[in-house]
Amino acid sequence: MKACFMGLGYIGLPTAIIAAKHGVQVTGVDINPHVVEMTNQGRLHIIEPGMEEMLQEVVKSGALKASIKPEVCDAYFMVVPTPFKGNHEPDISYVESATRAVIPYLKEGDLYVIESTSPVGTTDKMKDLIFAERPELKDKIYIAYCPERVLPGNVIYELVHNDRVIGGMNEASTTKAIEFYSQFVQGTLHRTNCKTAEMCKLTENSSRDVQIAFANELSLICDKAGINVWELINLANKHPRVNILQPGCGVGGHCIAVDPYFITADFPVESQLIAKAREINNYKSFWCAEKVQNAMLRFELEHHRKPCVAMMGLAFKPNIDDLRESPAKYIVTKVMQSCNNANILVVEPNVKEHNVFKLTDYKEAYEKADIVVMLVAHDPFKTLPYTTDKIILDFCGIYKK
Ligand SMILES: NC(=O)c1ccc[n+]([C@@H]2O[C@H](COP(=O)([O-])OP(=O)(O)OC[C@H]3O[C@@H](n4cnc5c(N)ncnc54)[C@H](O)[C@@H]3O)[C@@H](O)[C@H]2O)c1
Question: Fewest C-beta in 10 Å: which of 10, 99, 182, 316?
Fold first, then answer.
């Protein structure tokens, strides 16, 4: 079987590699020539433990080759970005352009699958696009949606062992897609229709967002009430049926902070809670920045000099180097913009260099700072002692009891 993966990023490349390792003849397509070149040289352009060895193996054996153009295959997978536009409207133009690129190659019996996180109805839209261009293929090809739910950093395991939801435009399409994925997925492949599968992916990430918003809302209430939110949540979670997540300085990343907008954009009246959760999580970052600015002003009034402030963390979650949609980065930017003369030290131990922020070693920043702002619960920060000699703003529970 020959398969074509459109998009060789964090999801498309590992999936292409695993499929190639399991006997599929894979053409990996990316519009970025650098990605194509590196892949063909057996060099991984993303960070994913253990994946480069596998890539080298499948490139060497000829099971995977990369190209900037698709070619005739039996199955086509769209694994391209689905960001949102300025107004939080989903942008499916990458899916559309990848689909247009494969349309000329489609033939009777082929399988077309979208893996990109997509608004409800995207698979139907692409089906209409395909049949408008190639009406002779109506009822002759299989079309399905199969979202991805792997955790970067653990992709080799999760790609094979996670359960997956597969929704075809009809039963035959679902069956055909399940046949493909069962070549390398050991988790259960759950059948559904394409709209439910699209909504399922959005639901998973919106559920996380809403639950984090609850924790973040509690943190705002507790701050006003003079209650330690970490202790509170720990105690509430002693209830056998309560499981509250941890608050933080907001919600970031390219999934949880993005996907709920794919629901709110299309169902604005119905998605009140999902929209409010987005608002609360965004507000939490704004609130944190205000807290830092107020602490700096108070320090200046009391000590008649500007404070040295250590901003601890830029990534969107602990122990990673990914800064996409990061609330910590937003807070650091906002604080720096408002206090141009203050001495602000930016810390991110998982990143060597940054093109905007001059980075400082975490121990050095902590030692020098009058105000320490804990933004991300990176493991190294947990080795820094709590002290009353400094003002410590702990937004991520480094010193939680
Ligand atoms: N990264 C994750 O953890 C994750 C998890 C689940 C779902 N997803 C979803 O998977 C999809 C892909 O995400 P990603 O993280 O792999 O993105 P990515 O940005 O890492 O990679 C996408 C790749 O697609 C390429 N591309 C863009 N347009 C193309 C086209 N027309 N033809 C061929 N290649 C094209 C880009 O050059 C890029 O290399 C998105 O919808 C994302 O929301 C991502």
Answer: 182
For residues 160 and 133, is the Cβ–Cβ distance under 8 A?
Answer: no
Task: Give the model's confidence band at 320: pLDDT under 50 very low, under 70 low, under 90 confident, else very high.
Answer: confident
Q: How far apart are CA 176 and CA 42, in angstroms?
A: 31
Q: Calculate the alpha carbon distances from 59 to 6, 55, 210 in Å.
A: 17, 6, 42
Give the other-Cβ count within 10 Å of 323's Cβ.
19
CA distance 314 to 353: 12
CA angle 184, 188, 194 (to 5 degrees): 95
Largest CA distance in the chain: 78
Residue 201 annotated among the catalytic residues of the structure: yes
Pocket perturbation via mutation, ligand 1, pick of 4, 67, 80, 148 by most ligand atoms within 8 A of CB: 80
**Residue count of the chain:** 401
For residue 377, the model assigns a pLDDT of 95
Give me the domains of the chain, ranges plus CATH numbers. 2-187 (3.40.50.720), 226-394 (3.40.50.720)
Beta bridge partners of 312: 347, 374
Asked if the model's pLDDT at residue 224 lies above 90, the reply is yes
Measured from the Cα of 147, ligand 1's closest atom is 7
Q: Is 273 within 8 Å of 210 (Cβ atoms)?
A: yes
Q: Which of 176, 201, 284, 329 is catalytic?
A: 201
* Ligand 1 center to 219 CA (angstroms): 34
Query: Ligand 1 centroid to 263 CA: how many Å?
Result: 20
- The Å distance, Cα 89 to ligand 1 centre, comes to 18
Measured at the CA of 98, the angle between CA 97 and CA 103, to 5 degrees, comes to 95
Residue nearest to atom 25 of ligand 1 (CA): 7
**pLDDT one-digit tens code per residue, 171-205:** 999 999 999 999 999 999 999 999 999 999 999 99
Q: What is the pTM of this model?
A: 0.93
Q: Which amino acid is at 358?
A: K
Whether 396 is catalytic: no
- Specify the 3-state DSSP secondary structure of 153: coil
Residues with CB under 6 A from ligand 1: 6-12, 29-32, 35, 79-82, 94, 97-98, 101, 116-117, 148-150, 152, 255
